[in-house]
Backbone:
């Protein structure tokens, strides 16, 4: 069984300079924002929006992502420890980011940003931003693969990964599953926007994104090891619990009646 598996022992560090090191996760995280900015630049030019607005939006999204992802990890997966040791919350470099927390952080940041931009309300921004968020998710999950974290359950499938730095058990490479699906979601969202953006009701792409990403997240969690011990006592794990409201929100935006179109396009 182990012979047919892929032995994964790639170092999470690309290079080390004294006390500082460049890690694959950090590089891929940064590339998510770089590629996202490049794609959204084309979107803003296409829709004749000033790039200065995109620069401001980028700052809001970066802060919302990092703060939300860190607080999400601390409060969703180990609240007792972090509330007892609040200084530990600030140690982002030690790892611990939650995608559901990032989603909440981004939504909060966009709400604050959209209040300043009358021609770019929150739904208008979300319908475009989710395209690059899907791509960012694909890159970040590759970073998780390099870190040998968020590992899958033991399996005997021929493409199983043996994460040497964790143990010598063949496991589902759930990081790859998610990365590939998020990249596919990026392509789907981008093609729909490119071909049908003028005819789509406001919120459609946002809703489709939520259904695709968090719907897949719900099911792929069945193949993952729990991230915290308390999840073993739950009927479904924390990732699945947090995914349900996002999927329901996505269904709402997909199937709601087409209304307030003019106000949504301001």
Residues:
């Amino acid at each position: 069984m182990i012979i047919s598996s892929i032995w994964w022992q790639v170092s999470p560090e690309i290079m080390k300079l004294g006390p500082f090191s460049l890690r694959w996760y950090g590089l891929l995280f940064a590339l998510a924002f770089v590629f996202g900015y490049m794609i959204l630049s084309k979107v803003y030019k296409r829709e004749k929006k000033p790039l200065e607005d995109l620069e401001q939006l980028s700052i809001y999204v970066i802060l919302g992502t990092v703060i939300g992802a860190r607080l999400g990890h601390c409060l969703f997966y180990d609240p007792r420890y972090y509330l007892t040791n609040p200084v530990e919350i600030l140690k982002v470099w030690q790892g611990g980011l939650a995608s559901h927390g990032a989603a909440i952080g981004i939504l909060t940041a966009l709400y604050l940003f959209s209040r300043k931009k009358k021609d770019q309300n929150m739904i208008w921004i979300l319908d475009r931003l989710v395209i690059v968020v899907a791509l960012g998710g694909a890159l970040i999950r590759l970073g998780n693969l390099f870190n040998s974290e968020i590992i899958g359950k033991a399996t005997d499938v021929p493409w199983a990964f043996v994460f040497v730095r964790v143990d010598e058990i063949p496991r589902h490479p759930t990081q790859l599953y998610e990365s590939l699906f998020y990249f596919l979601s990026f392509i789907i969202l981008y093609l729909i926007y490119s071909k049908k953006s003028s005819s789509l009701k406001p919120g459609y792409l946002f809703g489709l994104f939520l259904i695709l990403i968090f719907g897949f997240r719900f099911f792929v969690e069945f193949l993952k090891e729990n991230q915290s011990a308390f999840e073993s006592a739950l009927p479904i794990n924390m990732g699945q619990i947090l995914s349900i409201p996002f999927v329901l929100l996505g269904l709402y935006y997909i199937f709601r009646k087409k209304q307030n179109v003019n106000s949504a396009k301001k």
